[in-house]
Amino acid sequence: MLTEKEIWILAGRFSARSITELSIEDMQAIADETGISLKAVEWYALDKQIQPLRYRRNLGTLGFDGQKKLLESTIIVCGLGGLGGHIIEQCARAGTGTIIGADHDVFDATNLNRQILSAIDTLGEKKVEEAKKRIEKINPAVDFKDYHGKFADIEDSDWENADIVFDCLDNIAGRIVLGEKCTSHNLPMIHGAIAGWCGQVAIVWPASSILETIYKGQETGIETETGTPPFTAAAAASIMTANAIKILAGKETEKKEQILFFDLFENDWQTINL
After folding, report:
1. Is 0.70 surpassed by the pTM of this model?
2. Hey, which of 8, 24, 50, 142 has its CA 20 to 30 A from 192?
3. How many C-beta neighbours within 10 Å does residue 211 have?
4. Cα dist from 30 to 12, 18, 240, whole Å
């Protein structure tokens, strides 16, 4: 995260301070004065048990070490629609250091019911470009790399540097191929899908057969009939983000083969072990 020279510079910059917390303005001022990235300044503060106010409400859950690990992390989000938009919003707010987003689409009117990055004035705009703008507004310490294309267009170096991948695709065939891609790079994948009031979320560990088990004999999802309302998308995306952050922050150590199914109409939640 930091070079020896940067550590030396920040050590001098922080040595005169007797502080336990720093505001967004203070963090940005230090970054501007030293020429060191805002993300690196935040990481150094956390390493010295100084709270960046931006992350204060995270620390009781993640701890200083967990927040540092999150800042060091790189995620790939495949699909920036109903699920992916919520996920990059939450991951940026949480302080995930680098987000790589891939989507070949632009916004249209049918996206307005659930896709948090969409608005009347973004119709016709590229989803990856709106994602980049949104992250810059939320948390400028987070690096965002965009691919206006499919996940197959993501460079090998980005797969190699990633820590986790989000499956936010809208077709079964693509999900299976993405799972195989993640296995080839030894990456855990967070799978999510919704239909009507219902959704499913799973951590797909490398070489897992979860997706094949779920989708055996299926070619299309039932969401084409039941629709994809906003509350189901937000619920599934939040669970997906929580599962990813558990792994990234070092809180999840057991590789369970299970999938969560939820029904928001019946308030029914079931975890199935496979």
Report:
1. yes
2. 142
3. 21
4. 11, 15, 34
The answer to whether the beta carbons of residues 190 and 248 sit under 8 Å apart is: no
Nearest to 202 by CA among 247, 258, 248, 274: 258
* Coil vs helix vs strand at 272: strand
Alpha carbon distance 103, 169 (integer Å): 9
Q: Are 71 and 45 in contact (CB under 8 A)?
A: no
What fold is seen in the domain 73-273? Rossmann fold (3.40.50)
Q: What is the pLDDT of residues 16-37, one digit of tens each?
A: 667 889 999 999 999 999 999 9
Q: What is the pLDDT of residues 75-123, one digit of tens each?
A: 999 999 999 999 999 999 999 999 999 999 999 999 999 999 999 999 9
* Residue 217 tokens, joined: 């004999």
Distance CA(6)–CA(34), nearest Å, equals 9
